[in-house]
Sequence to fold (425 residues):
Amino acid sequence: MPEARTPFRSAWRDVPPRQVREFAALAMEEVPALAQDILREIRAEYPGLPVVLDDSGEPMALIGIRRALEGFVQQLASQEGRPRYHLEVFQEFGRGEGLHGRSLDSLQAIYRLGVRLAWRRLAEIGQQIEIPPPAMYELAESGFEYLDGLVDQSVRGYAEAAAREAGERLRLQRKLMELLLSDRRSDTGSGASYGSGSGSASGAGALGNGLGERAARVGWQLPERVAVGVLLRPAREAVAPAVGEGVLLDMEAEQPRMVVPDPDAAGRPELLRRAMTGWSGAIGPPVALADAAKSLRWAEAAVRLMERGLLPSGEVLHCTEHTEALVLLQPEELIEDLARRCLAPLEHCGPAHGRRLAETLLAWLETRGGAPEVAARLGVHPQTVRYRLRQIRELWGDEVDDPDRRFELELVLRARRLRGQLGRA
Fold:
């Protein structure tokens, strides 16, 4: 049979109740002066410690020390097994550290200093009334356990403050992005041109003081140029990409959005590429700050094309690398209307033959070469190309020699190729 464990016997509980009461009474009498001494030592050790007063003008630190000592002594007098700690003031200390952007390291060091100083006085009282050493050792352990409880209270307050601060920052950041991306802050026209922003004022001057004030509240320095991204979540519970400081990110939207300051700055594209691993979406063209809504519109257009399978998915695209697709595929109704008029001569050809003639016409328009060059582009015999070009002449006549008609034909044929309706030469 396994050897039975010897139950833990509390040396402190073995102290006669009369002696415990005497110890607690003496310790409680010492609390006000001891609290003052501890605070004095703490201020000497940490001269930069801020002094926060309560409504009566008494230092909150002194109140906390006094309450902690009183709570511990009362616990000793009750001779309960484990110390209790319901001292909300220590949560406030933790909240204060969090709200002022400080770590808990110095606060915990202060607590340890306070416990060490308190223990010296309690040890003197224990010797005075002859508390047995084993009981005093156990009392020391309880003191450090009590310290752990106070630290836990401060950690809880610190975490609450950090969460509140983070939530408030995200709320302010979303408000900043809403203002920045509002259509009222840029030309509400078609936005059919990326533009260099030379026609618009840039930076804070173009947007007024409202945006500057909001940016200052989240510590965001207004850049000259931005690019706006729209993201597609890889999964509902996907963790936000680590885009780095300076990039505004709104994860609350169904399709998360981000504002990238100075997108062409050295190292920025590579940083975003690494951060966006596993995500897909699009980043609009760089524009002046006042035109951020235009960059957003291009990114949204690119994402719609991705969702339709007309642009590659599975990565974050840059609109500037897919200009042709965005220009030709976005105004779908206009392009289709132009295609019906320009390609009307093919209506009487069979689908397969009509597609071959369209591919040949596009290759000829792009190369402006003879049959050998077009044949090399299409991978067919030059004689086949000559036959098709004669048919094209018969169908369109002199229109294929008109620069404006050639431009329209190339436009609609390129759009069809982008949609996968024509083969890629």
In short: Strands lie at 225-232, 248-250, 257-261, 280-283, 287-288, 316-318. The longest strand covers residues 225-232. Residues 185-206 have pLDDT under 50 and may be disordered.
